[in-house]
Backbone:
């Protein structure tokens, strides 16, 4: 039986593209919010969720790190998706007739040079795929959308130009979430372990907690802090490290980390995506 994978956004969103490229046999399920995508897995309406966590140009995706610890789900994979931006309009439109482009503010900011070169005004829309749908329904050749090539295909729009982003290596990292963890796999490119923790209220606790990763030769690829419950005194940290908790050096580093933390929660152990390089 085919799996269903939930994502936030409308059909044609970059999260939709991530679902198709990573799980081509699965049925994508569009959801209104990240919470809805998580709830779809918890309720059994979907077996997996594809959630964006960070972009190489704009950094982390807001809210995701707050949602992961309390979601009850586990990270079982990661996916890196190249963000190729296309300018699209109703069939028959010529580039020189486009006066305005509508899209999510993030995408508009990634195509400043192209839009300026062609004298196209930026108009902020709700999201990328939704903007493509609106342009299709509007039917105005003067109004185009910035979205993925997949959105143009879904909404019957002509691609007037693509690959127009200012940064040629713009990439989004996604996490694949499931109801149960899977600690049995070993990826050819290595493994990743993601976890959140709160340090104990002692001097230099974070410095001491991180020391175990350095002395045991564990590469930490990500460390971010964020407040918990709106409190300035309770800071939670999210981290990604290379390796599996059953590896001797990772086990020793996590043991040392646990000594200096008041809370430690492993979110997932999963194969390292080769596209990470």
Residues:
């Amino acid at each position: 039986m085919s799996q269903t994978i939930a994502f936030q956004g409308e059909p044609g969103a970059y999260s939709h593209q991530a679902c198709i490229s990573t799980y081509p046999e699965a049925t994508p399920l569009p959801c209104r919010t990240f919470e809805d995508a998580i709830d779809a897995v918890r309720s059994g309406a979907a077996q997996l969720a594809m959630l964006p966590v960070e972009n190489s140009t704009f950094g982390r995706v807001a809210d995701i790190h707050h949602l992961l610890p309390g979601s009850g789900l586990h990270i079982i994979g990661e996916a890196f998706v190249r963000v190729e931006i296309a300018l699209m309009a109703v069939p028959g439109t010529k580039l020189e007739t486009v006066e305005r482009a509508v899209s999510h503010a993030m995408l508009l900011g990634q195509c400043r040079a192209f839009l300026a070169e062609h004298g196209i005004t930026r108009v902020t829309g709700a999201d990328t795929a939704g903007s493509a749908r609106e342009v299709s329904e509007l039917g105005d050749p003067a109004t185009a959308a910035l979205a993925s090539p997949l959105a143009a295909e879904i909404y019957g729009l002509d691609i007037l130009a693509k690959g127009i982003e200012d940064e040629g290596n713009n990439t989004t990292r996604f996490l694949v979430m499931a109801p149960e963890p899977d600690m049995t796999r070993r990826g050819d490119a290595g493994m990743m372990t993601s976890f959140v923790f709160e340090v104990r209220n002692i001097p230099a606790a974070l410095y001491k907690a991180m020391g175990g990763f350095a002395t045991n030769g564990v590469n930490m690829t990500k460390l971010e802090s964020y407040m918990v419950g709106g409190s300035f005194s309770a800071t939670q940290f999210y981290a990604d490290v290379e390796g599996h908790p059953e590896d001797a050096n990772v086990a020793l580093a996590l043991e040392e980390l646990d000594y200096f933390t008041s809370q430690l929660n492993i979110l997932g152990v999963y194969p390292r995506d080769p596209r990470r390089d």
Q: What stands out?
A: The mean pLDDT is 92. The radius of gyration is 21 Å.
